[in-house]
Amino acid sequence: MHWRTKGLVQKVLGLHPAGAGLHYRLQCRFGGLTDFSRELATKIEDWTIMVGHLRAAGMPLAGTRMVEIGTGWYPTFPLACHLAGAARVTTFDLTRHLRPELLRRCVHELGGFIDTIATAAGVDGEEVRARHVDLRAAIDAGAGLEEATGGVVRYCAPADATRSGLADGEVDVVFSNSVLEHVPPDVIRAMYRESRRILGARGLMFHSVNCGDHYAYVDRRISQLNYLKYSDRAWRFWNNAFLYQNRMRAHEFVDLALECGFRITLDTSTTRPQRLRELAEVRVHPRFAHVPAEQLCITSIDLIAEPAA
After folding, report:
1. What is the pLDDT of residues 250-293, one digit of tens each?
2. pLDDT tens digits for 104-143?
3. Which domain holds residue 162?
4. How many CB atoms lie within 10 A of CB 175?
5. Omega before residue 158 within 30° of 0, cis
6. Domain with 296 in it: what CATH number?
7. What b/e string do you get for 160-170 counting C-beta neighbours within 10 Å, with b at 16 or more?
């Protein structure tokens, strides 16, 4: 599909009263929900990467109090954290995407990842398996997410993660996966400040950001740097309610965290030769002229930040 076709379809759906329902059906037929099993496996792979980074930073999952920003269609990360023994996971989403049929399928298919979850988190596999048996039985009996997890996972949507309602210092980890690239910069700043408030003195903030042009996933004729061609005004036309992209570069997520009172302990951003070659083929708009090519071409970053003293 041509990326402009996708953009226009989503633009129209975002303006239609029934657009959310139509968008969900299109996602099931043509989009990210067409191959649920593959998508779930990818999310679990991302989860294991996050857990590895957190453990390396001295933050085990067992007994941890966590906040997720951006739940999505189904709560893979919160449920995997629950199975690994997290004490509490509060997950926020601006829009209520979660659907019972997707939740049930997610729970069922997580049964195939028991060993992966246990190994990644460094916990006993039988404990993970026992939690999954209880979780699956509760979901199959009609329980909601919070009830099925014994109160561990709390789903807040529609909700504003910049006003979490949580107490100062009551959280150990705030995290997101492929979310911040879809959030306006001023809102990211507010999220960081709220994270700084609710994190304990030894808490951590983890974000994995995919800051390339997401239209490239549906149109192989363009690269993940394609959207750097456009002015802010032109890009506003292609942004829409279902695929907003802020076009922030990797270093800007780090700079904002520093501005909001964090110290960076992990920054995986890397300049890759392939991206430099792709950038050379893009007529970059003057709006990005101040960014060195080595930074402009980076399309992903995992970062960990801790409250500065």
Report:
1. 999 999 999 999 999 999 999 999 999 999 999 999 999 999 99
2. 999 999 999 999 999 999 999 999 999 999 999 999 999 9
3. 36-307
4. 26
5. yes
6. 3.40.50.150
7. ebbebebeeeb
Number of Cβ within 10 Å of residue 137's Cβ equals 12
Which of 173, 185, 196 is closest to 261 using CA atoms? 196
Q: Which residue bears the tokens 């090519």? A: 293
Beta bridge partners of 66: 89, 173
Of 42, 47, 207, 208, which is closest to residue 117 (Cα–Cα)?
47
Residues 187-241: pLDDT tens digits? 999 999 999 999 999 999 999 999 999 999 989 999 999 999 999 999 999 999 8
Under 8 Å between Cβ of 66 and 86: yes
Secondary structure class of 28 (helix, strand, coil): helix
Determine the Cα–Cα distance for residues 173 and 67; give it in Å rounded to an integer.
6
Is 29 within the bounds of a domain? no
Q: Are 246 and 183 in contact (CB under 8 A)?
A: yes
Instruction: Please give the structure tokens belonging to residue 157.
Output: 């949507």
Q: Give the separation between CA 130 and CA 304, rounded to whole angstroms.
A: 31
Token couple for 93? 């989403």
Count of CB atoms situated within 10 Å of the CB of 32: 14
CB 155 within 8 A of CB 57: no
pTM: 0.94
Task: Tell whether 22 is covered by a domain.
Answer: no
Q: Which candidate, 82, 84, 153, places its Cα nearest to that of 125?
A: 84
Cα distance between residue 240 and residue 6, in whole Å:
10
Has residue 284 been placed in a domain? yes
* 287 φ, ψ (degrees, to nearest 5): -55, -25
Model pLDDT, residue 213: 97
Q: Is residue 64 part of a domain?
A: yes
**Domain total for the chain?**
1
